[in-house]
Amino acid sequence: MAFSLTSKQIELRGSWLVAYVQKPDAQWTFSKLNLNDHIGNKDGQFDVTMSGWSNSAKSDSCRLEGTLLVAQLRHMNGSFGQEITINLDLFVRNNSGALAFQKLHDSIILSSCCLKIEQTSLSGLSLAADGKLHYSTVDLNEYYGNIRGEFKSGEKHYAWTGRNFRLEDSSKSVKLIGELKDGSHVYRAAEVDISICVVNQNGRLTFIKQTVKKEQAARALATCTNSTIVCAGILVGMAVGTALGNPLIGGVIGAGLASPIGILAETKIADALIDDPRVRSDIHEATVGRYIYETLRNMLAAGAAAFLAEGVSAAAGPVIDTFIEGVVNGLATKGLKLVIDFSVYSALKK
Question: Hey, is 85 helix, strand or coil?
Answer without folding.
Answer: strand
